[in-house]
Amino acid sequence: MNASAKPICVGDVMKQEFHVIDGKATIYEALEMMKKYRTSLLVVDRRNDNDEYGILLVSSIARKVLAKDRACKRVNVYEVMVKPAVYVEPEMDIRYCSRLFARFSLVRALVMDGKKVVGTISPNSLVLDGMFAMES
């Protein structure tokens, strides 16, 4: 990328479609949503304005429910989610976002504009959409 080119930001490559679930929902309900919307991530809603968002990943369900032979109808989302969810701003350069992912071994992060979730970001989006566009 030459020095005068505009950097590619997280907001340019983030996934804008995401689905929100309540932390009190069961893992079974979360799996129903994941299958319906064909996603491996759900945003766990804040309980109030002073709370933080959480993130529920299929990999967390596999580790904390399936591998431990727990009944998904008896486990709540709040028991499995990652909270607080790591988030970045849409204006962040994808190179810095990629470094953040590498430093903390992240697989997903929320994209937030102020206190509002506007999307999600993954290494796949950073590389396949962002890095590819940088080289084009």
Task: Please explain how this structure is put together.
With about 140 residues, this protein is an alpha/beta fold. It has one domain (about 10-135): CBS-domain, CATH 3.10.580. The protein has six helices and six strands; from the N terminus they run αβαββααβαββα. Strand 5 and strand 6 form a beta hairpin. Helix 5 runs antiparallel to helix 6. It is elongated and about 50 Å long.
Number of domains: 1
Q: What's the rounded overall pLDDT mean?
A: 92
Q: Percentage of helical residues?
A: 25-40%
Using only C-alpha atoms, the radius of gyration works out to 16 Å
Chart the SSEs and their pairings.
Elements: H1 10-13, E1 20-21, H2 27-37, E2 41-44, E3 54-57, H3 58-66, H4 77-80, E4 87-88, H5 94-104, E5 109-113, E6 116-121, H6 123-135
Parallel strand pairs: 1-2, 4-5
Antiparallel strand pairs: 2-3, 5-6
Task: Report a brief summary of the structure.
With 136 residues, the protein is an alpha/beta fold. The protein is built from 6 helices and 6 strands; from the N terminus they run H-E-H-E-E-H-H-E-H-E-E-H. The chain has a 3-stranded mixed sheet with strand order 1-2-3. A 3-stranded mixed sheet has the order 4-5-6.
Offer a few descriptive terms.
single chain, 136 residues, alpha/beta, CBS-domain, three-stranded mixed sheet, 6 helices, 6 strands, elongated
